[in-house]
Design goal:
This protein is flat. The protein is built from 5 helices and no strands. Helices cover about 70% and strands about 0% of the residues. The chain has helices at about 10-25, 30-35, 40-50, 50-70, 75-80. By secondary structure, the chain is mainly alpha-helical. Helix 2 crosses helix 3. It has a domain at about 20-70.
Length: about 80
């Protein structure tokens, strides 16, 4: 039926992987995602989803660089008063 309707076959595992990727992409903690997936520890989750976390790291780098390049520099006096 799937071939006839030109619908790709999707396995349960594919949905599980998409779900985890979606959560990580939307800044849900790796600890929570790992527990939700039933992984023994977060290392397993980190190994499987490292590509997602690398993308997020690059995105966060860009946000930080944009913020730092557009924010006014703090003078030593203003740091002491903060």
């Amino acid at each position: 039926m799937l071939k006839k309707l030109n619908i790709p076959r999707i396995r349960f595992h594919d949905l599980r992987h998409s779900h985890a990727s979606f959560l990580l992409y939307n800044d849900v903690s790796i600890d929570y995602v790992s527990k939700r997936l039933g992984h023994k520890n977060t290392r397993i989750t980190l190994d499987v989803y490292a590509h997602m976390l690398k993308e997020k790291e690059q995105e966060q780098d860009q946000i930080a660089l944009t913020f730092l390049s557009s924010s006014p520099q703090m003078s030593p006096e203003s740091k002491n008063n903060a």
